[in-house]
Specification:
Blueprint lengths: L5 H16 L12 E6 L8 H8 L5 E6 H6 L3 E2 L6 E7 L3 H5 L5 E9 L3 E2 L21 H8 L6 E3 L6 E3 L4 E3 L9 H15 L9 H4 L6 H21 L2 H16 L6 H18 L10
Parallel strand pairs: 1-2, 7-9
Antiparallel strand pairs: 2-5, 3-6, 4-5, 8-9
Length: 287
């Protein structure tokens, strides 16, 4: 574990107190689209295994329907579309248990509304209308991306933001679905910082194989957002993104139970990541 000095702890304690006492609004997702996976007819959210599976489905909205439900909505599933299996548990009542019935599980195949055609969308529960906004690129932000030597691929295949270490790629929601272009770049910088942890770059263990919500995952999220905030400041968009970054940092740091050492190590790791993104290699990213 990297050394943390007493002066650093003093500064970290002060920063923690500011994060804990600041009146920050909850972190907000800055792009439109996605949402909690749900049945498009009943509006009921999927839970458990179903939710985690459908959250990974690459669609702009989280509404799913069965083949029959698509027909009841006046439409049909597009030819060649592959559905998503979901499980359904049926639990008997007390009287049914007494009569010898037992819980049983079956699975259904559902399709996202984007996999269907001819649906009466007015009957889809919770369907989000995505208003797109044309944005002009910010030269300073584009320069930061372009100067990231040997960086990952950038794709816009899904309406989600993430970095995949297995494929060494960043996926970003479409720029037009962000209310402010500054939020697009802040999100991109967050995923770029994650990508510096790849085994071919700074090789941060946490980016390789950790579970969501774990201690290590929380530390990596701090690294990514500190890196994003620093890059935003360098690009001159800091005032427009700082509040949301602070809210994000505060929310993840609560999971670390206020450990000042973790805060310091995250900031140090973020500084190394920023140096690499700006053109420095691993060998000169220790300053």
């Amino acid at each position: 574990m990297a050394h943390v000095s007493k002066p650093e702890l003093i500064v970290a304690d002060r920063l923690l107190s500011l994060l804990e006492t600041a009146e920050l609004p909850p972190w907000r997702k800055p792009w439109k689209g996605g949402g909690v996976p749900r049945n498009g007819v009943s509006g009921r959210p999927y839970t458990g295994l179903n939710r985690w599976l459908l959250m990974l489905a690459p669609y702009a909205d989280g509404a799913f329907v069965t083949f029959n439900q698509a027909q009841s909505l006046g439409g049909s599933v597009k030819k060649g579309e592959k559905g998503w299996p979901v499980v359904f548990w049926k639990f008997p009542t007390a009287d049914e248990i007494a009569a010898g019935k037992r819980p049983f599980c079956r699975y259904y195949t559902v399709f996202n509304v984007a996999q269907c055609e001819g649906l009466d969308l007015s009957k889809i529960k919770g369907l989000e209308t995505i208003e797109e906004t044309a944005h002009e690129p910010i030269a300073a932000c584009e320069s930061i991306w372009n100067n990231y030597r040997g960086g990952p691929a950038l794709e816009n295949e899904e309406q989600r933001a993430y970095y995949s270490p297995n494929f060494d790629k960043i996926n970003m929601p479409r720029k037009e679905t962000f209310g402010k272009v500054e939020d697009y770049y802040s999100t991109l910088f967050h995923e770029m910082t994650h990508s510096t942890g790849h085994s071919s770059r700074l090789n941060r263990e946490a980016i390789q194989s950790v579970s969501y919500g774990s201690h290590e995952y929380s530390e990596e999220e701090l690294v990514a957002e500190f890196g994003a905030a620093e890059l935003c400041g360098m690009a001159g968009i800091e005032p427009l993104t700082l509040e949301n970054s602070a809210s994000y940092i505060a929310s993840w740091h609560k999971r670390l139970k206020g450990e000042p050492e973790a805060l310091i190590l995250a900031i140090k790791a973020a500084s190394k990541a920023v140096k690499m993104i700006l053109g420095g290699g691993e060998e000169d990213a220790d300053g």
